[in-house]
Amino acid sequence: MPIVRVEMWPGRTPSQKAELARVITEAVVTIAHTTPHETIVIFEDVSKGNWAVGGVLSSEAQV
User: Fold this and answer.
1) Contacts of 4 (CB under 8 A, 6+ apart)
2) Do residues 28 and 2 make contact, with C-beta atoms less than 8 angstroms apart?
3) CA dihedral defined by 9, 10, 12, 14, rounded to 10 degrees?
4) Residue 6 and residue 44: Cα distance in Å, rounded?
5) 40-45 and 3-8: which strand pairing?
6) 3-57 has which fold?
7) Which pLDDT does position 8 carry in this prediction?
8) Which segments in the chain show pLDDT lower than 70?
């Protein structure tokens, strides 16, 4: 049973997450030779204050 975990900043709509889940599931089914019912996709929204790149919190980074 493959489990795919997707961590990203908040802000994606439910329809965007649904589309991501669909295409991720299709890829896993094709490549890992599993079934859609055995494939789990977990979305976790991580705030920019809990995400750092290069040692700098994304909430404080200069864009």
Assistant:
1) 24, 28, 39, 40, 41, 42
2) yes
3) 130
4) 6
5) parallel
6) Macrophage Migration Inhibitory Factor (3.30.429)
7) 97
8) 63
Q: Half-sphere exposure (CA, 13 Å, Cβ side) for 2?
A: 18
Q: What pLDDT is recorded for position 61? A: 83
Give residue limits of the domains in the chain: 3-57
HEC string of the chain equals CCEEEEEECCCCCHHHHHHHHHHHHHHHHHHHCCCHHHCEEEEEECCHHHCEECCEECCCCCC
User: What letter represents residue 22's amino acid?
Assistant: R
Task: Answer whether 0.70 is exceeded by the pTM.
Answer: yes
Amino acid at 63: V
